[in-house]
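Consider the following assembly input.
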Amino acid sequence: MPKNQQSVWAEGTKVFMIEQNLLPFQYQIFESESYAETCRAIKEMITRGAGSIGAAAGFAMMQAAFEAPVNQYTEFIRKAKKEIEATRPTARDLFAATERVFLKAMISKENAAEEAQKIADEIAEAGRKIGIFGNELIHENDKILTHCNAGWLALVENGSALAPVYEAFRRGKNIFVYADETRPRAQGARLTAWELNRAGIEHAIIPDNAAAWYMSKQKINIVIVGADRIAANGDTANKIGTLEKAICAREFGIPFYVAAPSSTFDFECKLGEEITIEERAEEEVLYQTGPDDNNILHKIRVASPGSRAVNPAFDVTPAKYITGFITEKGILKAEELIKLKK
Amino acid sequence: MPKNQQSVWAEGTKVFMIEQNLLPFQYQIFESESYAETCRAIKEMITRGAGSIGAAAGFAMMQAAFEAPVNQYTEFIRKAKKEIEATRPTARDLFAATERVFLKAMISKENAAEEAQKIADEIAEAGRKIGIFGNELIHENDKILTHCNAGWLALVENGSALAPVYEAFRRGKNIFVYADETRPRAQGARLTAWELNRAGIEHAIIPDNAAAWYMSKQKINIVIVGADRIAANGDTANKIGTLEKAICAREFGIPFYVAAPSSTFDFECKLGEEITIEERAEEEVLYQTGPDDNNILHKIRVASPGSRAVNPAFDVTPAKYITGFITEKGILKAEELIKLKK
């Protein structure tokens, strides 16, 4: 059984995840019985967010180890690893998890299962610690801007960018969160708002276009976002729009923090420009899905027929715009990130 | 009868406008027989964009002059003026038009009608000249970013920000336009894309979040936007999100131009901070309307139930971020704007 706020978990060789495409309008648990199904779930964003993707990918490797025929054990797992890694190219946690579980699977499938669970537990625990460290940055009456969703839905449990918010709220601080809508998939309006509403934390959804305006009006004191992959120099790939918020935050002298577990840091990647940016289907921009007043879901066109769209899923924010990184090992500056390297 | 590309016009005391709330999915002409109906049309954004609002407001004043009872002529028109001015507080052209037609209405209703038509013609002609001046800034193979809709739909005819694009295209330049979606009302995805598609100009819709990323990748050479009101020092109120684009453009060394007729300049307003910013209903952020595959319109929720939104319609971009102003009198720097003052 899942804990109260858990986005991905395993029972035996079955993998479970909250169906995030249906949130906030429907709450369903998706159940995957094979690594191929788990791959599809990651690709279709049934689960999403760097940490949740990492945990799901680790579990998928475990499933592959249990599915692998004895006489083709290694080849099968190697092939599965490639398939899992092809689902979401930008998420660092995914590659970290597949690598770790793959190495253990070379010993035995039981070792693989143990390692996959360990990864999920580590990510959840990292979120808890990120909350404790990040809470120090949040002061009474702060108004916090966040982009996309980096809550517990995105990080197995606890969250990355939202973990400090949850911790500050638990400690009784009076805070307010502005959630960027985060077009095109609207993870801010759909998922972050859902999490905050569920937790009883005061918040408002803002159009992505409004962030700089509220910064200029001193309505935002601090920006905290998550990350999908962080290069050795601190350049950070995160949801498209993060770069705009970071540039504007610096312009207005507002601290801009990236919250992420060390599994999101990629020390083999020296610079942000080496990070592969996933391009997603234009349909995500041209159409939206949601319920009408009778709770019937419709997919509607929200753009001029005959026009095309482009849809880069992430951007890279150079380290110079980032005040600090909130990790499970403390709050670090870009030049201190080397401390995270094992 | 309207010309081919005309957003607002009058025949006698009837005012006609393209119903922009239904675009791009339905093309309908809205007909208003009274100043009160024209007020409602402006408020509900049946017509929108600074120039089109100005023309419609002038025509509304003309309608009021013809509706005014002889024994209460002045009081009636004075009251109508207040009502018209209460529809959209940020648009400078609206106040410029009501003032001009009001003064002529004090002579006779025929003078009011003549002045209202003159205003509409002047705005259209200003758009034509903005196109000719602005074309000089657009080079072969340029990729142009625009925000919101400042095409002919927004400016009676010709457009402001899009006028140079149309002119460059007519002269055979190879150009490409990135149209910001412009949430929450998506005037970029709905109206700018519709105009560009109709004109056969190559373009792509991008999520508002993607602009800085494309700037950082040198995919954008120039930014041109319209304006709703420009203060004497060049601070510019325009669609929410303009400030973000301007800050990012400066960061990446990309020229950022504001295109507007002189009727949008407000020399009584010294600084941007004096400009009233319209706050619109949160429903615009929380819901979207559009057709399904069978062309049936649905209004769907696109945000978490239980969460609220805030919706400032405009922001103010300080003059320091603006490379220049494309007006019907030439391209001016902020410190040269005084030349526009009559």
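The mean pLDDT of chain B is 96. Ask yourself how this observation constrains the way the partners meet.
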